[in-house]
Structure formats: C-alpha cells, structure tokens
C-alpha cells in the first residue's frame, strides 16, 4: 500500500514517468476487464486508453480505501458498462439462476476442421470461456489470472462477496462439464 | 454412494479454501470416481491460468501519455487539498462592469450631496466648459427628480443595490465555472 501511495504522490506532483509505471503495472488487469466485457475488438484498445486517462484525471480523489489496482479495475469496469450502455449493447441480461442461460455446449463432432486432442484443450477451453456471460467470465479471469480475492472482485464489479463466489463456482462447474463432454466422447 | 465430494468441495479443495480437508482427503484416497473429478477440475484450473488472447499495442503507454494535457489539473479534490480553484482569482470583473458601477455611484452621490449649480458656475468661471455643462446636465436631472418628489437618496440606494446584485452574480457564476472545470465524474 505504501508503495502505491508513493507512486500516486509522484504522479500528483506531475511526474509523468511515475504514471508510465502505473500504466505498465495495471495495463494487463485493465485489458482483462475490457477483453471480457466488450466483444468488439476495434473498441478495446480505445477503451483501455480511456480508462487510464480517467485514472489520471481522478487520481487526486483516490483515498486508498481499496488497493490502487482494485480502484483502477473498478474504473475499467465502469467504463465498459458506460460503453455498452452508450452502444445499446446488452449488459447482464443473461443473469439469473437458470442454467439454460449458458449457451449450449458446442457439438464438436460437426466441426471437422477442429482436430481434437489433449493439445488443443486450451483452445477449446478458451472458446468455452468466451461463450460464458460477460459477468461470469470477468469474475473467472479476475480470480484466476489477476489473483483477486472475492472481496476485491466484489469492489470492482459492485457485487456482494457471496455473489462473486457463487458465480465463480457455477462458471467453473459449467466449464468443467463442457470439457467433460469432450472427454466422455473421446474427443479430448 | 451419497458421500462423493460435491463440486463445491472439489473447487474449494483446489482453491485451498476447504475447511475440513482431512475428511475429503481420506475419501479421495479410496474413491476413483472422485479422484477422476478432481483430475478434471485440475485440468480446468490449469487452463484457467492461461493468458487471454488480447494484448495492448507496444506503445500503449506513450499513446495514453500523449493524450494527457501537459498542465492537466489532476483533479485534486476541491475540498480537501490545495486545489486549482484558489490558485487563480475566482472573481474576474469585466472592465465595463467596474466602469458602470463607478459612474452610477458618482452620479448618485453628485445628485444627492453636491451643489451642482455652484460647481457649474465655478467651472464656467475657470473656463472648464465641459465640466460646467455636465454639472448643469446633472442639475437638470436633480431638478427633474425633485419635481416628481423623488428623493435622490432613493436613487443612490437603488443604484448601489443593483450594482451589488450584479457583482454577487458575477462571483457566483465565476465560482461555478471554476468548480465545473475541476469536477470530473468517473
Ligand atoms: Zn467419491
């Protein structure tokens, strides 16, 4: 915390190279949020830029009530929500307890150009994660790639910790079953 | 067998957040079905650690820095920190406003306190025709007002009040403008 405090003070004092450090420390995290929330490839980089400009303009109001990275992730999440709203794209319309909201498992038997083997497990998993509702895949990525706690993910996405946990567990169960389907058919 | 591990238990086990891990471990030792499930989840967890297929351009930081204005106000909190609000004058009177107020007050004072006829006569004697004629003009106004029973003191009061309203309005507008340039919602 003190390290990021020093960084923030430097940036507020006008040190641009300190801001460069902040960007390089957090651009992967911001990229993850934007990648998971926004589908259109052409908009992602612009959105990431917008996030860091907002971070810069609002840094004076950061009160260290959370980790700096969590605060930045939250700005990224809000920016994505604003973006989706502006473009009138669906948000979390796919929320709820009904398992059918998840897209059906891809029937790989009818995709002859995909050669299934243990080696492309990761390719299939990536595709299956991609099919999850934005809320679920964002949580999965923040937990496993950014090693955020339930509390930090909750702060980022304005969700109660318990909700974060139950969505994470449900998403992983669905993913496991989809991979399982492949195993049982002998595809994997 | 109803005692197989639940999905939640296996996930917690792999997350390292399982409370009664001894019970689970002893079951796992003897149950190939659950061992298989754990293996499936393990493969998934390994896969979830793989980086996403998205990366920002190499000069991303430069692009962001280029977009930040050189003397950007950095949104210091206007309440709790030394803010740009107080580093520049809040009130900027227009020259016209100052001029108008000064002339209005002088006219009102002139109408009420000064013996304009005497000034007119004196300045004409000194050859200051312009001053003499303006004193005469003011005297006409003074005469005109008193003909209608209007106290020049009342005129002075109205003029000063109107000026004060204009000045206060200017201050408020100026402060709002400053505040707007600082506040920036996320
Ligand atoms: Zn078992």
Kindly list the characteristics that best describe this protein.
heterodimer, A: 188 residues, mainly alpha, Rna Polymerase Sigma Factor, Chain: A, Arc Repressor Mutant, subunit A, 2 domains, 0% strand, globular, B: 186 residues, 66% helix, disordered C terminus, binds zinc ion
Annotate the secondary structure layout.
The complex is a heterodimer of chains A (188) and B (186).
Chain A: H1 2-12, H2 16-37, H3 41-58, H4 68-86, H5 121-131, H6 134-144, H7 150-157, H8 161-184
Helix pairs in contact in A: 1-2, 2-3, 2-4, 2-6, 3-4, 4-7, 6-8, 7-8
Chain B: H1 7-15, H2 21-30, H3 32-48, H4 60-67, H5 95-113, H6 116-125, H7 129-147, H8 152-182
Helix pairs in contact in B: 1-3, 5-7, 5-8, 6-7
Bound molecules: zinc ion.
Determine the number of helices of chain B (DSSP H or I, runs of at least 4 residues).
8
Tell the overall outline of chain A: globular
CATH topology label of the largest domain in chain A? Arc Repressor Mutant, subunit A
Mean pLDDT of chain B: 76
Question: Which small compounds were modeled alongside the protein?
Answer: zinc ion
- Global mean pLDDT of chain A: 86
- General shape of chain B: rod-shaped
Roughly what fraction of the amino acids of chain B lie in strands?
Answer: under 5%
What class do helices, strands and sheet pairing of chain A give? mainly alpha
Strand percentage of chain A lies at under 5%
Give the oligomer, counting copies of the same chain as homo and different chains as hetero.
Answer: heterodimer
Give the H and E element order of chain A.
HHHHHHHH
- Helix-residue proportion of chain A: 55-70%
End-to-end CA span of chain A: 45 Å
The CATH class of the largest domain in chain A is identified as: Mainly Alpha
Most residues in contact: chain pair: A-B, 45 and 34 residues
Distance between the termini of chain B: 54 Å
Rg for CA atoms of chain B? 41 Å
